[in-house]
Amino acid sequence: MSYENLKLEKGMYRESGASFTEVLEKLDPSENYKGTSLEGTDAFQRQLKRFDIHVKGAGSDSVEKFFSTLDSSVLFPEYISRAVKQGMEESDVLPKITATTTKIDALDYRSVYTDNSEENKSLAEVAEGASIPATAIKSKTNLIQLRKRGRMLVASYEAIRFQKLDLFSVTLRQIGANIRKMHLNDAVDVLLNGDGNNNAASVLSIGTAPMSGTSGTLSYKQLVEFWSQFDPYTMNTMLCGSGVMVDMLGLPELQNPQTGLNFQGTGVLSTPLGAELIRTSCVPEGKLIGLDRRYALEMVSAGDVNVEYDKIIDRQLERAAITSISGFGKIMNDAAKVLVI
Description:
Layout lengths: L19 H8 L15 H8 L19 H4 L2 H15 L9 E5 L7 E3 L3 H4 L15 E3 L6 E8 L3 H4 L4 H29 L8 E4 L14 H9 L8 E4 L1 H8 L7 H10 L9 E4 L7 E5 L5 E6 L3 E2 L1 H5 L6 E11 L5 E5 L1
Parallel strand pairs: 1-9, 5-12, 6-7
Antiparallel strand pairs: 2-3, 4-11, 6-8, 8-12, 9-11, 10-11
């Protein structure tokens, strides 16, 4: 079946376990276009071409172009979803702090864990005929809490019908960035306080053993001491707020000419002790979170970005919700620690 004569309908958004684009791909596989001018496009992009809808650039169309026919109006919720996801990806810190992402089709999720005591970490010599020490994988006591995060799109069709899609996409990308920040806030909360399974991060305070120094003052020595607490893990990521970031970048050991040139020329921050430094307002001031992103955090996602397609297709945009459901769970508890300055 050619992409030019597909029948589009609302029901494509309701198919269980498949997104709108995946439903389109079943009807119009991209592999059929290898060696043609449409190679590299997906089924949704081919539908935009079918109805001659340009969503970006100086020649972008207005919103009302989607509603020129009943079939083309079905594409509008997917356009919104893609623009929101683009905003989420542009400001996405989560891949830098999560070890894995688990996608589920439910609202309940129970993760697993292993006993991470020193005894279970060691690989003792096994005598001939003796049993091999076992590592037990168990289900966590409490479910991972999933939170629905979203924004309400409040606009009448009359108010946006003549709006250019390129500019409208900017607003949608901002909504996506706001949703992702809410998810990041949830991730930081789990790193600090645990996921409800008695696994809050270990807290080290400057001036209290094993940390030296004076409370309220950060020096390079304390950073090294904090780094040393991660054995056998590697502190490869640090999260902090603006105040702690300023204190760190003010340390003489981090003020070398190359660091200055990199920051001034590219905005890329230095990597103290080899760890990627991430600034976010989600971390309380006066605290620094260090983690081994390979083992610390699991992201659980229930479905994709959800758009109230019925209202949007029917031009009832007033208070149409755009939502995303995600949660976070600890994997290895001691792979993340908190330094209180």
